[in-house]
Amino acid sequence: TATIARTDAANTFTGTQTFSGAVSPTGGVAAGGGFTASPRLLHTGELPARVSTDGTNATPSATETYVAEVFIPCNMTLTGVAVFNGATVGTDKHCVFLCDSAGTAVANTATAGTTTSGADAYQRIAFTAPYAAKGPATYYVALQMNGTTDRYNAHPFGNFGAAKGTGTVFGTLASITAPTTFTADLGPIASLY
């Protein structure tokens, strides 16, 4: 058993360590071995689209925000979100933001939106600035669309937080209520990158 009170230097442990209480790394956990971790394999609900027909071709409302849970296992830099578009694209715009487990927006794409492109395909939409996510932690991808013509693909089933917020304004990054239950056909199928 060791007590570490220093905050001015890194500590190195070798061998097996036993901690009787919870370990709360406020700085997150770095990728192992001095390497980096890629966010490209992190998907809402840990369920990526496997084929172009996956998901529910969902009709959005311009006054709703669609939310799905995503788990980030270690510290990593996020560039943006890849949204799995529905069958109709090219008219409306996406605005996407990332929220922490408290529901606070921590990163976002352009609030003016990005026109949808690529039917039944992933569309990468960059954040306004890269975000240094700390993990392990739960985050949420929140999707807004400014019209009802285009579609996004939503998770039809799952066991993770997926819901919608109502009465929202496109491009306004309000805090969300982090969902703890799953509602079908609302949470966007999306991946981080």
What does it look like?
Helix content is 0%, strand content 34%. The protein is mainly beta. Strands 2, 4, 5, 6, 8 and 10 form a six-stranded antiparallel β-sheet that branches. Strands 7-3-11 form a three-stranded antiparallel β-sheet, with no helix packed on it. A two-stranded antiparallel ribbon has the order 1-9. The model has no long low-confidence stretch (mean pLDDT 93).
Low-confidence stretches: none
Give the helices and strands as they follow along the chain.
Answer: EEEEEEEEEEE
Overall mean confidence score, pLDDT: 93
Proportion of residues in helical segments: under 10%
Backbone structural class: mainly beta
Number of strands: 11
Radius of gyration: 18 Å
- End-to-end distance, in Å? 40 Å
Strand content: 25-35%
- Report the principal-axis shape: elongated
Report the major sheet: 6 strands, antiparallel
Number of helices: 0
What are the SSEs and their pairings?
Elements: E1 56-58, E2 64-72, E3 76-84, E4 93-99, E5 105-108, E6 114-115, E7 122-133, E8 137-145, E9 152-154, E10 162-166, E11 190-192
Antiparallel strand pairs: 1-9, 2-8, 2-10, 3-7, 3-11, 4-5, 4-6, 4-8
Report a brief summary of the structure.
This protein has 193 residues and is an all-beta fold.
Q: What labels describe this entry?
A:
193 residues, mainly beta, 6-stranded antiparallel β-sheet, 3-stranded antiparallel β-sheet, 34% strand
